[in-house]
Amino acid sequence: MSVADHLRRVRDVTLPLRDILEQRVDEPHVPRWCESRGWATFLVGLSESELVDAEAHGLLRAMPERAPDSLKALAQDVLSVTSLPRVSGSTPLGTEALRNVRLRKRAQLSGLLAAVRRMADAAERVVDVGAGSGHFTRLSADLFQREALGLEQSAERVASAKRRSTAALASFVAVDALAELRLERGDLAIGLHACGALGDHLSRAVASARCGLALVSCCLQKIPQDVRLPLSGGIELRREHLGLANLTSQPRGVEASIEVTIGARQTRYALGQLLRARGVPLEPGAEMSGINRRQANAGLARVASLALALRALPPPTDHELAHHDSLAAKDYALIRRLSLPRSMLSRLVEVLVSLDRAAHLEEQGLGVRVAELFEPAVSPRNIGIFANPDAGLLPAA
Fold this sequence. Notes:
Layout: H1 3-14, H2 18-22, H3 32-37, H4 40-44, H5 48-57, H6 69-82, H7 103-115, H8 117-122, E1 125-129, H9 135-144, E2 147-152, H10 155-164, E3 170-174, E4 187-195, H11 197-209, E5 212-218, E6 227-228, E7 237-238, H12 239-243, H13 258-277, H14 300-310, H15 318-343, H16 346-363, E8 367-372, E9 383-388
Parallel strand pairs: 1-2, 1-4, 2-3, 4-5
Antiparallel strand pairs: 5-9, 6-7, 8-9
Helix pairs in contact: 1-6, 1-16, 11-16, 13-14, 13-15
């Protein structure tokens, strides 16, 4: 099946669900899309153990038998169109080259290096876009014995990458790749967790240069405009639709257990209610703006103090904290249940955007493969888009 055909299948499943994408569950009330489909009684009646199971493994895979037929059918459709092949293989990496690099990052680097090996051997230059600390740049220069250029917006990170690197063929430049990205036909462009708009920009640049690409997308919602326009046959998606792709169902997340993650979300909900009660206008999800999201693990008192201080408002009172903590414990339990069908669409959104980018590359005559690059435990953002003028050099899947 071509990328374009796969994209059409995903789009056909997504279009009838636009009302679900449009209405996120922010309050303990049954949304219109849930009522109209007859799902409310089932969702509200989920036991705590069923709810936790669905949050840990996803409603797609933890659907109770008594669920409405229409909900079960939707789950099967989503599973079918979001199923992707897996690229296997890893590259042994010396510990000396990866000092102070976390184990998950090492696994990502190892998997990506193995996946692009044949493309890199045929390329004249590796261009690592959004190079960060420069790990992939210097590793690829050593492994493939090719010129490797790391492009990074942060001058501080570029300076750090230069200090770390001993690879003669590796170089680093501080540049905003969204403004200045020049690729040549012989390049292999790399975007390991290229955020938001950078993924689209890199896809367009590769299509124009007709060079090689390995792109793993991340944080799709980080776009300058309110709406992402498709590059090919996708659909328009608003920023909040794109943010849905960040949701991941697994017993233990990248940073914490599911219990800690749900507790942090409940704290964020309580914070939003506290701020609104203080008269602060808030967009959905904006309650933690300016605050590191990990602070939510410390509880409401901590994040409320920070959020109010940022707005030059008096600190929270003990009564406020107790009141909103208590309300959140009751209301958020209902919100969690009613949110399950919408959360079920997170992978659908991510696959839709990935296939839209890949179809744009395919339209320019490039060989393209879209596949999972590593296990979700290594990173839930694991969809790789691989493109090359010679399709025979794409990673096997």
